[in-house]
Amino acid sequence: KIVAEKGAALVHPSNDPDVIAGQGTIGLELVVQAREHWAGSDLEAVIVPLGGGGMIGGIAVAVKALLPSCLVIGAEPANADDAFRSKAEGKLLSHDKPVKTIADGLKTTLGTNTFPIVQNLVDEIFLVEEDDIASATRSVWERMKLSIEPSAGIGVAVAASAAFRARYPNLK
User: Fold this and answer.
1) Are 150 and 137 a contacting pair, CB within 8 Å?
2) 43 CB-contact burial (10 Å; exposed 0-12 / middle 13-18 / buried 19+)
3) 96 within some domain
4) CA atoms of 18 and 44, how far apart (whole Å)
5) Structural contact between residues 114 and 54, judged by C-beta atoms closer than 8 angstroms
6) CA max distance for the chain
7) How far apart are the first and last CA of the chain?
8) Which of 3, 4, 53, 70 sits most deeply, having the most CB atoms within 10 A of its CB?
9) CATH number, domain containing residue 66
10) pLDDT given at position 141
């Protein structure tokens, strides 16, 4: 309505190419800081919350450009699994049912710009159940005294999961 009435520009929060590129600076920062912190060692994997795909898309482009062997792992709520299904079927899919998740920042769907990036550069997507999202979010508070939203806790849930550790036992 505002775009039509005021002539304002609409910048999509996850599917706009400039937003995706901006999110790529997170990937650059991860690579640089890991090298500084671990005396020149490179990242082996990054786990990124996955909703509309802008953040994981930008991070994947940057990380894969700098470290092609680094794994880029998506963390998606099992109740909002459009990216998982889209990647598996090789085509952009929407939610097939109403989305109900505590990770409300991840309720969005992939877009026409983010889907090809996820399809080509994201190595794997892990689906996370609601209880695991809540538990990981709570664990970050209890152990680190950091208050994070469930949409961030989902990445911790993947990293702590038996499925992830079994799939990637050699990651440090």
Assistant:
1) yes
2) buried
3) yes
4) 27
5) yes
6) 56
7) 50
8) 53
9) 3.40.50.1100
10) 98
- Residue 7: inside a domain, yes or no? no
Angle between helices 82-89 and 114-121 (to 10 degrees): 70
C-alpha to C-alpha distance for 43 and 61, rounded to whole angstroms: 15
pLDDT in tens, 82-112: 999 999 999 999 998 899 999 999 999 999 9
| 47 phi/psi in degrees, rounded to 5 | -115, 125
Arithmetic mean of pLDDT, 42-59: 98
What span, in angstroms and rounded, lies between the C-alpha atoms of 53 and 106? 9
Count of structural domains, the chain: 1
pTM higher than 0.85: yes
For residue 24, give its domain range.
13-167
Q: How far apart are CA 170 and CA 56, in angstroms?
A: 23
Q: Which SS3 state, helix, strand or coil, does residue 8 take?
A: coil
Give pLDDT tens digits for 123-134: 999 999 999 999
Q: Is residue 162 part of a domain?
A: yes
Helix (H, G, I), strand (E, B), or coil: what is residue 118?
A: helix
